[in-house]
Specification:
Blueprint: E1 2-7, E2 12-19, E3 24-32, H1 37-52, E4 61-67, H2 71-88, E5 91-96, H3 97-106, E6 114-119, E7 125-130, E8 141-143, H4 145-155, E9 158-160, H5 162-167, H6 183-192
Parallel strand pairs: 1-4, 4-5, 6-9
Antiparallel strand pairs: 1-2, 2-3, 6-7, 7-8
Length: about 230
């Protein structure tokens, strides 16, 4: 099965082609752009296809990173994945940022549970624990730094992610901390998802940072109050 993996959930805009039968990544393209994923994603996909010497029609599944992460970026990726899958008549699956971080870390810590811990700002940590086999032990959640530290200690787990790497588990990560997600790992996880995994949808663990300015809303006139 040929899997097209895409990621727009963080600072990167990435695409990869993966042959699950051969267990081989055919191509991978990543641009670190921060913003503007909607404008660059299709060009990145085209570059990945060209590098793999494949046409879009060869793709048999689309895997997309669904978050948690950038609110706008996630929506861009999920919409693109659904649109491509519909146009090609193939399935699409979602892969979380937390499982990508955990799976990328498991090889370095065989036999040990892993906790993925991403800096979520607002003194929160996007957190999920995984077994040594990569199976989820907890649901994805936005925890306080204290609770994230307790979870890591309780499981005697290895930990990975921007919160761990930049704050050493003692507080919010530095403002410049960024999580990046291995697009090849996204493709591998996407290939492993069951056929009935369902269409991808964004994984938001809290609301968007931007709030509507309700104080400027105009009250509508009620019937009879003219």
């Amino acid at each position: 099965m040929i899997v097209l993996a895409i990621d727009t959930a963080g600072v990167d805009c990435s695409a990869a082609l993966y042959d699950s039968a051969a267990g081989r990544v055919l191509s991978a393209v990543t641009e670190t752009i921060g913003k503007g994923h909607a404008e660059r994603l299709m060009a990145v996909i085209d570059e990945a296809l060209a590098s793999a010497n494949l046409q879009l029609a060869a793709v048999e599944r689309v895997a997309v990173v669904i978050g948690p992460g950038s609110f706008t970026g996630i929506r861009v990726g999920v919409a693109a994945a659904r649109g491509l899958a519909l146009a090609l008549g193939i399935g699409s699956v979602g892969v979380t940022t937390l499982e990508v971080l955990a799976r990328s870390q498991l090889a370095a810590h065989p036999g040990q549970p892993v906790v993925a811990a991403m800096d979520a700002k607002r003194n929160e940590v996007y957190t999920q624990a995984f077994s040594a086999e990569g199976q989820p032990l907890t649901e994805p959640a936005a925890l306080s730094p204290e609770d994230a530290s307790k979870l890591i200690a309780l499981l005697s787990a290895a930990a990975t992610g921007s919160w761990v790497e930049h704050s050493h588990g003692k507080g919010e990560a530095e403002s410049g901390a960024r999580d990046r997600f291995d697009i090849a790992m996204v493709a591998r996880i996407g290939a492993e998802k069951p056929e009935d995994a369902g269409r991808p949808k964004p994984l938001y663990l809290r609301g968007p940072d931007a709030k509507p300015q309700t104080g400027f809303a105009l009250a509508r006139a009620l019937p009879g109050n003219d």
